[in-house]
Specification:
The chain is of the alpha+beta class and about 400 residues long. It has helices at about 10-25, 70-80, 110-115, 135-145, 160-175, 175-190, 220-230, 235-240, 255-260, 270-275, 295-300, 380-395, and strands spanning about 5, 30-35, 40-50, 55, 60-65, 205, 265-270, 285, 290, 305-310, 315-320, 345-350, 355-360, 365-370, 395-400, 405. The chain has a single domain (about 5-75, about 180-405), classed as Beta-lactamase (3-Layer(aba) Sandwich), CATH 3.40.710.10.
Length: about 400
């Protein structure tokens, strides 16, 4: 497998593990990017973008990064908070009055960011294509009764997070989520990262290669098993009641790519993912572009909720919009994937294994994107091997095989 790009000698093991992903771990097409003190030290790509046509993965290839998008959406909220335009401790109704229906008037903005809002799914059935209709979904969420008392527990808002946070951003700024992100983040930083992909970029998108659950050795997480066997459950509603978005192949449609879906719809690559986090690893700014004041970083990186997740059925840890290190290796194999980074790091993985994060203590940003999905909910062996090699290059060590320490 031909690997292209550059890698600093200190991070040679990252390249080795990237090559092993193709040789031993079933990688098809992927990219990985690492910055240290703002400078790229790893910028690699390789493999095949489209197995049907044989199109190689190039420097310009982009791909659906799924829930890595949540971090970009959360960043938009933190930008506004850092500027004093959004109070994370205020009730949502201060910015979105209609949201107060069905007893949600005391829900705080921080509850929405930390997956405590009680709206991981809608109970009224959505029509086909609903997730491409922003007004339909946000008005439905505003009218929905929460599935638990907001602030009393956390449960992953896997598909609704982007509509909830994105509507708050829209109410504050008058811009759609994708417009605000482009104006304040991806545009100034020159990133290949879109929430709402321009049509002329479609030829650069690598199609998703989904997991085939019928293949031997595939272990589906409890979330998926529950959704398939209990469609009326919260996991079932989350994965089935989305206007068909989660149907096989739909996420690769032009309609899906064009829509602004701040939980799951982002299109990017490793450079784009690492690029979002590069300023956050450096106190909030990079190359003259300040995203947030340095005092905002703890709001992003500190743990807000941890423990049993009411939706995904495994332990999770979140800051205000970002995932934190979580070692689930002690769980049964189908639920064992987590996120093994340092305790100072914060970021987000995407369904199937993509990942981006910042580590302010190490002054590190990291991005990994690929087209072949893994079966689990966390970071699988391909992405984790690259993270591990990155931390080893910095002289970090692990205790008990979990979180990385300097």
């Amino acid at each position: 497998m031909s690997i292209q790009g550059t890698c600093a000698p200190q991070f040679a093991e990252v390249r080795t593990e990237f090559e092993r992903n193709f040789a031993e771990r079933g990688e098809v097409g992927a990219s990985v990017h690492v910055t240290l003190d703002g400078e790229p030290v790893v910028d690699l790509w390789g493999g095949v973008a489209d197995p049907v046509s044989g199109q190689p993965w190039s420097e310009e290839t982009i791909v659906h990064v799924w829930s890595c998008t949540k971090a970009a959406t959360a960043l938009c909220a933190h930008i506004l908070a850092s500027r004093g335009a959004l109070d994370l401790n205020a009730p949502v109704v201060r910015y979105w009055p209609e949201y107060g229906a069905e007893g949600k008037d005391t829900t705080l903005v921080r509850h929405v960011l930390s997956h405590q809002a009680g709206l991981p799914a809608l109970t009224s059935w959505l029509p086909a294509g609903a997730f491409y209709d922003w007004e339909l979904v946000t008005s439905s969420l505003a009218a929905q009764k929460p599935l638990w008392e907001p602030g009393t527990r956390h449960g992953y808002h896997g598909l609704t997070f982007g509509f909830l946070v994105g509507e708050i951003v829209r109410r504050v700024t008058g811009l759609s989520l994708g417009q605000f992100f482009e104006k304040e983040v991806s545009g100034p930083l020159g990133l290949d990262f879109w929430m709402g992909l321009p049509e002329d970029l479609e030829p650069h998108v690598a199609p998703t290669i989904p997991v085939d659950p019928t293949q031997p050795g595939i272990l589906l997480p409890s979330l998926f098993i529950t959704a398939m066997t209990q469609p009326e459950s919260v996991p079932g509603l989350m994965l089935l009641n989305n206007g068909g978005y989660m149907a096989p192949g739909e996420s690769d449609s032009r309609a899906a790519h064009a829509a602004e879906m701040g939980a799951i719809g982002g299109i990017s690559n490793a450079r784009g993912l690492a690029g979002v986090y590069r300023p956050l690893a450096l106190g909030g700014s990079y190359n003259g572009v300040r995203l947030v004041e340095e005092s905002q970083i703890p709001q992003m990186s500190n743990v807000a909720v941890a423990g049993a997740d009411a939706v995904v059925m495994v332990p999770s840890r979140f800051g205000l919009g970002f995932q934190k290190a979580c070692d689930n290796a002690h769980l049964p194999a189908n639920d064992a994937e987590g996120l093994l980074v340092s305790e100072e790091a914060f970021g987000h993985n995407g369904m199937g294994g993509s990942l981006g994060f910042a580590d302010p203590k190490a002054r590190l940003s990291f991005g990994y994107a690929m087209n072949r999905q893994g079966a689990g909910l966390g970071v699988n062996a391909r992405g984790q091997s690259l993270v591990d090699a990155t931390y080893r290059a910095l002289g970090y060590h692990q205790t008990g095989g979990g979180t990385w320490y300097a």
